[in-house]
Predict the 3D structure of the following.
Amino acid sequence: MSLAEPQERAVKKTVALAGATGLVGRSILEWLLADPSVQSVHVLARRKPRVAHARITCHIVDFAALSPLPPVDEVYLALGTTIKVAGSQAAFRAVDFDANLAVARAALAAGARRCGLVSAMGANPKSSVFYNRVKGELEEALAQLPFEGIVIARPSLLLGDRAALGQPERPLEKVSAVFGKILGPLVPANYRAIAAAEVARALLARTPSAEGRVVVLSGEMQRQ
């Protein structure tokens, strides 16, 4: 699918986005603003995003105590951190699980019919790896909510300029990028590092028409 598809939709819609200051979230916001079918974007964040636009309404929020949202048609969840940055497993879970789920519930109450989630390769609620387990538990929790459609993107390690966002670089992402250039097609598609913009593009191409639960693996998100 290409981004031409969501851009061609005539029906104007209102979208909620959590995580717009992150690597994938920033790309989601940029794609949404480039889509003429999007009437407005309600950005939920702890700090104001650097992107300014007439169609953006920024809500500086406490994700642990969200106020009711204005009416929305779709919601995109791109909140995420690392245990190192968060400081503890509990603090990590508060962002990656609790905050995302709170936004989903608030968007559903505001009329959202579909949800797009940035998850991770290896997400599994039964995983022995804490990071993967929390990601999997979030997927399962969202699946219990009565959205008409939910799209779950499970990217591999992400490529993008974290420094430009004021975020610390992640060593594994840098290493993966180097090996990806050296080994190229020898690396299975689902394990190749992927550009954050590609994840955003894939999520936005599928979510508006999704029915039921759709999982998109990293290899499927790579531009063909």
User: Anything to note?
Assistant: The two ends are 10 Å apart (CA to CA). The chain has one domain: 4-218.
